[in-house]
Design a protein that fits this description.
EC number (chains A, B): 4.2.1.49
Helix content of chain A: 40-55%
CATH class of one domain in chain A: Alpha Beta
Largest interface: A-B, 83 and 83 residues
Distance between the termini of chain A: 52 Å
Radius of gyration of chain A: 22 Å
Number of helices of chain A: 18
Low-confidence stretches of chain A: none
Bound molecules: nicotinamide-adenine-dinucleotide
Keywords (chains A, B): Cytoplasm, Histidine metabolism, Lyase, NAD
CATH architecture of one domain in chain A: 3-Layer(aba) Sandwich
Oligomer: homodimer
CATH superfamily of one domain in chain A: Urocanase like domains
Number of strands of chain A: 16
Pathway (chains A, B): Amino-acid degradation; L-histidine degradation into L-glutamate; N-formimidoyl-L-glutamate from L-histidine: step 2/3
Largest sheet of chain A: 9 strands, mixed
Protein name (chains A, B): Urocanate hydratase
Pfam family, one (chains A, B): Urocanase_C
Structural class of chain A: alpha/beta
């Protein structure tokens, strides 16, 4: 069982296929793209993002998946169980080519401890969300979500402008690395604490972060200058959030000098969902941490959990002092609560605070990637999307900023948050562009599992649902089965993404636009049905805007409407 | 929200459809059949079997499901969320007509307490296995499984003959009611403790049990006479297992008079998986129990759990004294263990003890029902099955005994345990019989969720797997998605069946043989793939017989073989 390997993986580009159809070629390229050196956080260990979110269980499994995809016929389906290819079965042309189930555990055993035991035995892999379902597109994927969240916070708390404001956060990993750029796009400054300097350097190299500091005073001086000047810029502070957050809180309470006297928004994106691998304990060096994960896992976990408690205690302090504070979906409040911090859930998660209204209309992180590998293909789709949605000024702004500020990683890709009624139109348009030859090669279309109808995660996406149905996971299972029935190209069911083992169940979907009539029929069904299940789920929970959306789009929801 | 209703539900029979195709007509008839007065344990409360296993969430939902099925087009799919119809979406002719997700909860919240909270709010329904997935066929469904288990125990412990032996058990509900008949078919006597006299009377009325007793001495006297005479007969003792089991154990230890000096096999099928609704506490009357479930649920649960501990303690006593003792899949050992009985898992579950070798070859509870409603249709299929499998003497015996001893309940149906390579042949044959007009109407084909590839349940079906992968639930999720992809008629994903909330995840599949070519193609795929996933799962776990079976059938299992 090999998890370490020094091979560099690059997906094929261009119009020559090594598989028997574009559907399987797409799966192969996207799997490889997830491990592209510019995309994955730690590709030699098969880690794509989010702690230990992997694309395949072992390198042997990676090779076997590639071989199976190259060989797969148009009426066959490959089954992948926690990153290992386990079977090839006969289905039909309109069925998915790949079905994936990652990290799923029977609830009573759904803990990190049991997962790690199975993982050590070679029986499991953590799939996160888009890592094990082969539709991660690098940090860009998270930029818009983060941007929308910060912008909405600005609207709710600062009259629509974040000029002269600063955001305190931590974690510059695969997802968290989007924060400085998203903050700047939203008009704010950002101080991001990151313990691993290589992560910070990666963000600076890819233009997601502007500056680096080694001391808190240095970082605060930069923020002071930028906020005064009304400039939106970001700094990575090399340090430990469990030390820096409490220190800033102390200074604020003590009335010591701080830009604006306090941070204007506080959040966090360390990998707190994974106490063994994702959170540096206070007082430890990164090297010590990495070594002890192997030799003393229990000690690492204990120390990390205790540090998270201190970290969250500071966040609760900011919240109580009136600073808009949000959990950004890493389950850190849950850990702090388990560590005895009764008030851990004082501040809200980002979904109920800012994102749910979008989910009610099926709006979420729609994305596509150009299998040609040619950035021009994406630029053409940018322009076409603007033409398709001429009235959507917000979308136009986003596409302009994205083109200007976001460096592609791996296969060129674009993300934009659109909802029911728009997604299938976008999909059909992309298919048309492939058919006409305007694009050089087919396009894959997918989304995050963090979406409207695809996830049950009571500490994050389904926190505080109106009817109390936060923990009901029938919905993502129905979503996955419906996407299989609709003819998506690959469909996945995962457990534990985002918030860790025990805390979420979710499904992913990817569909290929290869320019054929058959693809058009599938795209129309899948890209309608998929966001429609989100509207259905929120309508069932009693959200008026979801019911209105369902009525406006003529959804047939027998027990609901 | 109405759960009580005095309506009696009977499925339509004959060849006239009220739906637009046989696929949807089949779903409608089988839903109704689940609530047929001769089939369901408590149809007026929508309860089919297994504690509170329901076919629909409320009577309003039942009516809405029926209306939706009557209206459903050949390219549409109905979504059912915990017994409530929530959406109708466009798919295609080869996709399932119904997709069902019942009782699924995010692991950290997957407890009876949380389930009951949601259930009271009208947000959930317990689907058990075949109750909420509309393929329960009455007690017959369980007879063969129980028969196979007792017969195998006879082979392992008593040289192949149970003549003159007696089995001690409890619970004569929907599933447990099969025990006396299965014991008798296997050649043994049976003493079954049942607290609810109406349940015992029901079994006697339907010829599953031979006699009734009100005192232990009376029951033992009957057993004494039958075992002496070498007659295989059964008696229902009206009493509480938590009192009777310890008393028999006491007599055995004390050397007091007992047939054979001890029971020859001990097991149990009370609904221990559901401590609130399924197990009568010691010293309580049934009436008191029923009343207090509403008024003092916590007290009921506490008392039931304490009684189960005593019950299991007696079973451990029998086991330690050398009596073959088995958990029959109701999770009673788990409860006893939680109640502090350290030795609760001393005796094995029935799957690792007797059933797993069958699962390794994809063999499990295959079943079919005649939508015509005509018993002759089933008798014709009995004969045809014998002809199709001329070499399978075991199957022939079973079919003969079943015909003789099993009274049909609701739509006439037959079950027989067959595996990979045989199921699709049986399905194609049934389809041919429909096509040729030999059968009056189409046939539905399905199976229990307790099957080879469809369940993760570490205290039951996947107890003590060779590689320790008991809790990995990727497998049933892949099974469900593959059956959707293959074109089954309805597919379901459930949580908590058999062993209760938190302890299992499993999938169901039903497919209609309507005599068409399209059905034949789907049957061939689905009835091959479905057992093949079971062989795959057991081959992956390292069972040689599963690997041999996979090789023999030419399965393509890239990461496994
Ligand atoms: N809200 C969302 O939309 C969303 C989306 C995806 C992921 N997430 C969650 O956000 C978290 C981060 O995801 P990621 O992909 O960036 O993970 P990652 O593992 O790639 O990055 C985490 C980063 O945090 C740093 N870190 C760890 N402990 C630290 C500490 N004590 N102080 C400072 N820095 C520390 C690590 O060095 C690493 O760079 C995860 O929990 C993930 O589940 C949220
Ligand atoms: N092993 C298998 O193949 C298999 C299959 C299905 C179900 N089961 C499990 O078997 C159990 C029984 O299933 P069912 O459908 O018959 O359930 P059920 O609820 O219909 O029947 C349970 C019966 O037990 C009786 N009972 C309860 N407490 C009792 C006590 N203290 N003493 C005596 N009798 C008592 C009840 O009156 C009832 O008749 C469930 O836990 C179920 O999950 C096992």
């Amino acid at each position: 069982m090999t998890r370490h390997n020094t091979r560099d993986i690059y997906p094929a580009t261009g119009t020559e296929m090594t598989c028997k159809s574009w559907l399987t070629e797409a799966a192969l390229r996207m799997l490889m793209n997830n491990l592209h050196p510019d995309v994955a956080e730690n590709p030699h260990e098969l880690v794509v993002y989010g702690g230990i979110g992997r694309a395949a269980r072992t390198w042997e499994d990676f090779d076997r998946i590639c071989a199976a995809l190259r060989d797969l016929e148009a009426d066959e389906t490959l089954l992948v169980q926690s990153g290992k290819p386990v079977g090839i079965f006969r289905t039909h042309a309109d069925a998915p080519r790949v079905l994936i189930a990652n990290s799923n555990l029977v609830p009573h055993w759904a803990t990190w401890a049991h997962f790690h035991e199975l993982d050590r035995k070679g029986l499991m892999m953590y799939g996160q969300m888009t890592a094990g379902s082969w539709i991660y597109i690098g940090t860009q994927g998270i930029v818009q979500g983060t941007y929308e969240t910060f912008a909405e916070a600005g609207r709710q708390h600062y009259g629509g402008s974040l000029r002269g404001r600063w955001i305190l956060t931590a974690g510059l990993g695969g997802m968290g690395g989007a924060q400085p750029l998203a903050a700047v796009m939203a008009g704010a400054c950002c101080l991001a604490v990151e313990c691993d300097e290589t992560r910070a350097d990666f963000r600076i190299r890819t233009r997601y972060c502007d500056a680096k500091a080694h001391t808190l005073d240095e970082a605060l001086a930069l923020i002071e200058g930028w906020t005064k000047a009304g400039e939106a810029k970001s700094v990575a502070l090399i340090g430990n959030a469990a030390e820096v957050f409490p220190e800033i809180y102390r200074r604020m309470q003590a009335g010591e000098a701080l830009p604006n006297g306090r941070p204007d928004i506080v959040t966090d994106q360390t990998s707190a969902h994974d106490p063994l691998n994702g959170y540096l304990p206070k007082g430890w060096s990164v090297a010590e941490w990495q070594a002890k994960r192997e030799s003393e896992p229990a000690a690492v976990e204990r120390a990390a959990r205790a540090s998270m408690r201190d970290h969250v205690a500071a966040m609760v302090g900011f919240w109580n002092a009136g600073v808009p504070t949000l959990d950004y979906g890493n389950n850190i409040r849950q850990v702090a609560k388990e560590e005895g911090l009764e008030t851990a859930f004082a501040f809200p998660g980002f979904v109920p605070a800012y994102i749910r209204p979008l989910f009610c209309r099926g709006i979420g992180p729609f994305r596509w990637a150009a299998l040609s590998g040619d950035p021009e293909d994406i630029y053409k789709t940018d322009a076409a999307m603007k033409k398709l949605f001429p009235e959507n000024a917000h979308l136009h702004n986003w596409l302009d900023m994205a083109r200007e500020r976001i460096a592609f990683q791996g296969l060129p890709a674009r993300i934009c948050w659109i909802g029911l009624g728009d997604r299938h139109r976008a999909g059909l348009m992309l298919n048309e562009m492939v058919r006409s030859g305007e694009l050089k090669a087919p396009v894959v279309i997918g989304r995050d599992h963090l979406d409207s109808g695809s996830v049950a995660s009571p500490n994050r996406e389904t926190e505080a649902m109106k009817d109390g149905s936060d923990a009901v996971s029938d919905w993502p299972l129905l979503n996955a089965m419906l996407n299989v029935a609709g003819g998506a190209t690959w469909v996945s069911l995962h457990h534990g993404g985002g918030v860790g083992m025990g805390f979420s169940q979710h499904s992913g979907v990817v569909i290929v636009a290869d320019g054929t009539d058959e693809a058009a029929r599938r795209l129309e069904r899948v890209l309608w049905n998929d966001p429609a299940t989100g509207v259905m789920r929120h309508a069932d929970a009693g959200y008026d805007s979801a019911r209105d959306c369902a009525v406006a789009h003529g959804l047939r929801l027998p027990g609901i409407l």
